[in-house]
Design a protein that fits this description.
about 150 residues, mainly alpha
């Protein structure tokens, strides 16, 4: 509040306008709740680990579903055996590249689309796993900032 002139700082209507504007920016005025209320305490470690486990499990399910999609595509579209389909889908999903040479155009198109899709799935899966960790870090830093500013920690 150092940048605000002294006359404005003592003005109650000015403070009300700033508070209303802040609530509008945060989405609270329209009935939308923020992700975490600014005055909430940091979740206990047990709750954090439960959230991390849930999102990791969801991420693993996404990766497993993508692997099943790749195995099926390599088997039925590219005409590979099941074990070769598993190997190719796993290698593409892991970022290593294909193993077997593809003979058909349909198989090559599938492999191309599947490789691009796997790149997006990898980014999405990492986002799901990292989201609770980054959320906790940002919330912790915000609480520390409140303590430092003298506004009282939650």
């Amino acid at each position: 509040m150092r940048l605000i002139p002294k006359q404005a700082r003592s003005n109650k209507s000015f403070e009300a306008k700033v508070k209303r504007l802040t609530m509008q920016v945060r989405g609270q005025e329209e009935g939308l709740a923020p992700a975490v209320h600014p005055n909430t305490k940091l979740a206990p470690v047990r709750v954090f680990l439960r959230r991390l486990f849930f999102w990791s499990l969801l991420s693993a399910g996404l990766v497993f579903g993508t692997l099943l999609l790749g195995i099926s595509g390599y088997h039925w579209i590219a005409g590979l055996d099941w074990i070769d389909s598993l190997l190719n889908a796993s290698m593409i999903l892991g970022g290593m590249g294909p193993v077997n040479e593809l003979k058909t155009n349909a198989g090559k198109i599938f492999a191309s689309v599947y490789a691009l899709f796997c790149g997006l799935v990898l980014v999405g899966a990492m986002g799901l796993v990292l989201a609770p960790i980054l959320h906790r870090m940002l919330h912790k830093f915000h609480l520390d900032e409140q303590d430092f500013d003298g506004q009282g920690g939650a």
